[in-house]
Design goal:
By secondary structure, the chain is mainly α. It has seven helices and two strands. The protein has a two-stranded antiparallel ribbon. Helix 1 packs antiparallel against helix 2. The protein is globular.
Length: about 140
């Protein structure tokens, strides 16, 4: 019996020491899982989009449209992203939805900025699976 992919992924992602390495691992994993989009935050308390040496967003390399990423930055996600807020509070993976009324949110009441953030996500995806990863330093 083999190791489930999510356990293998979790062990490998914790071993990455660069955002580029994490992005490459995510790209490989998304292909294995058949997912269209993957994304990551290097730090849920600092939601700036990581860039490569040329200044391109790493998420562009994972298939996200550049304009959507630029719009996302303008929305100030650090203040409004309900997905990152939940990641900061949890250690277990969870499903999320771009629909604020979805059962995935358990009846949570959203602030206007959070709804705007979910609406922005909804232009590209219907939801996703978030996998909080903690390193030894937190």
């Amino acid at each position: 019996m083999g190791i489930p992919h999510e356990v293998h992924f979790h062990d490998r992602i914790r071993g990455q020491d660069t955002f580029a390495g994490a992005a490459q691992l995510l790209a490989e994993s998304s292909q294995v899982l058949g997912w269209d989009h993957v994304a990551f935050f290097g730090d849920v308390h600092d939601l700036g989009l990581q860039q490569d040496d040329s200044g391109s967003y790493l998420l562009e390399e994972l298939g996200w449209p550049k304009q959507a990423l630029e719009d996302w930055v303008k929305l100030k996600p650090g203040q409004h992203c309900p997905v990152s807020r939940r990641c900061a509070m949890r250690s277990a993976p969870f499903l999320w939805s771009a629909n604020a009324r979805s059962d995935a949110w358990g009846g949570h009441s959203f602030e206007p900025g959070q709804r705007q953030m979910l609406d922005h996500y909804g232009q590209i995806v219907i939801g996703g699976l978030a996998v909080p990863v903690r390193h030894a330093d937190g």
